[in-house]
Amino acid sequence: MPAATPAPGETGRVTIDLGAIARNWQALAAHVAPAACAAVVKADAYGLGAKPVVRTLRAAGCETFFVATAREADDILPVAEDTTIYVLNGLVSDSASHIAELGVVPVLSTLDDIRTWHDEARARNTRLRAVLHVDSGLNRLGLSPGDVALLSDTLDRLAGIDVVLNMSHLASADTPEAPENAAQLTAFRSALLKLPPAPASLAASDGLMLGRDFHFDLVRPGYALYGGQAVQGRHTPVEPTVTVTSKVLQVRALKPGDTVGYGASYCAAKPMRLAIVSAGYADGVPRAASAATNEAGGAVAINGIKAAIVGRVSMDLIAVDVTHMAQDDVAPGSDVELIGPVMALDDVGAGAGTIGYEILTRLSRRFECVYLDWDSD
Ligand SMILES: *Cc1c(COP(=O)(O)O)cnc(C)c1O
């Protein structure tokens, strides 16, 4: 990636490679063809900016987007002409009329939502599109097997509703050998027999790597588009899209017995050199990446070499151990990689006891955000 000149006073930078996001979508679309490939852009495209991501993916050929809320749908509408937008969380807070007004398609997960949408269609004297979401074992959102049986006996509940997709969601797709995957596939297939005929969708980023049986008509990746590799030991055909860098502010020497940071949780056992870095939990470095003496925590990379976080992550700063680096390799002003070629997104999550998904959705809003544009030619 080209290095851009830092803005005066810039403490860090989030660089988002829209070209890589477009290539990832194209690679996943090719992997699942002839099934279609949507893009999940909820939570501001996992923190990367829903508008630029949707604009890019639409130009790359994506015709279907999933968001979680009506507000998120509203945000992307101006850049999503001639696409279909599905709203995963349905008709929360009396949003039926607003969602109908926007012309986007709610995902209906309860019989109450179906009734509300049916009433909305009748009140408007029109037909309205909807997705039916069945729960096949995740026990999160979705119609239960009992709801599906009842619905299939009383299909007039769907009068005025055009079901454009039947969907479900997998619990354990990040564990390919988990028996829940096959069980959910069977449960989804039997639900489909009872629902009005429509295209079907089961798989997200990890599910689409479980094989053709899981593809149905449409897959719904989010995380993989942004370069996530949630499954250990298996490679999804996508590349990283995000780098986050920050700066060394100071380098200091510690004597044995010196402690580091709030709560003095880290104590030097030997002479050490520390670099103080201008990134903290307000910049998306999780406080759970703190490392007390004898505990593992998160890390960063300086000049391509990993440096462990020591002591507590504070709001605006972290301290990292650079004892093993050459004097010349780290100085005030040195670049620090928080996420990038050395610090892979999923490893950064693991270093804080969480997942890369959470790291992405909490990226710094204080750092400069730079988009590398996609040249669609
Ligand atoms: C978030 C979400 C997705 C996308 O999941 P990824 O693991 O990010 O690919 C797909 N479907 C549903 C229902 C979701 O909530």
Protein architecture, described:
The protein has 377 residues and is an alpha/beta fold. It has helices at 18-32, 42-46, 50-60, 70-76, 96-102, 111-124, 145-153, 179-194, 345-351, 356-361; strands spanning 12-17, 36-37, 39-40, 64-67, 84-87, 105-108, 128-133, 161-167, 200-201, 218-219, 242-254, 259-260, 266-267, 272-277, 299-302, 305-310, 318-321, 335-339, 368-372. Strands 1, 11, 14, 15, 16, 17, 18 and 19 form an eight-stranded mixed β-sheet that branches. Strands 3-4-5-6-7-8-9 form a seven-stranded parallel β-sheet. Strands 2-10 form a two-stranded parallel sheet. α1 (18-32) packs across α3 (50-60). The longest helix has 16 residues, at 179-194. It is elongated and about 75 Å long. Pyridoxal-5'-phosphate (PLP) binds next to loops.
Give the topology.
Blueprint: E1 12-17, H1 18-32, E2 36-37, E3 39-40, H2 42-46, H3 50-60, E4 64-67, H4 70-76, E5 84-87, H5 96-102, E6 105-108, H6 111-124, E7 128-133, H7 145-153, E8 161-167, H8 179-194, E9 200-201, E10 218-219, E11 242-254, E12 259-260, E13 266-267, E14 272-277, E15 299-302, E16 305-310, E17 318-321, E18 335-339, H9 345-351, H10 356-361, E19 368-372
Parallel strand pairs: 1-19, 2-10, 3-4, 4-5, 5-6, 6-7, 7-8, 8-9
Antiparallel strand pairs: 1-11, 11-14, 11-18, 12-13, 14-17, 15-16, 16-17
Helix pairs in contact: 1-3
Bound molecules: pyridoxal-5'-phosphate.
